[in-house]
Amino acid sequence: MKTVFFENSLGNETIEVLGFKTIDALEKELEFLTKDIEEEKIHLNYND
């Protein structure tokens, strides 16, 4: 479903403007960013 969302909402030109050659590359970057945010939330909660 996630892939369908990206394919339907972002055209290839938009993806290239964002600096990605493929939807897969964009999805991988989003996974990395999501993981970083989750780790940061855990770190911030631990320090509170």
Explain what this protein looks like in three dimensions.
The protein is mostly helical and 48 residues long. The protein is 81% helix and 0% strand. It has three helices and no strands. The chain has helices at residues 2-9, 12-17, 23-47. The chain is rod-shaped.
Which features does this protein show?
0% strand, 48 residues, mainly alpha, 3 helices
The profile of the biggest β sheet is: none
Fraction of helical residues: over 70%
Low-confidence stretches: none
Q: Can you count the beta strands?
A: 0
Class inferred from helices and paired strands: mainly alpha
Basic shape: rod-shaped
Strand content: under 5%
Rounded mean pLDDT is 78
User: Counting H and I runs of at least 4 residues, what is the number of helices?
Assistant: 3
Distance between the termini: 36 Å
Give me the strand/helix succession: HHH
Compute the gyration radius: what is it?
Answer: 14 Å
SSE diagram, text form:
Blueprint: H1 2-9, H2 12-17, H3 23-47
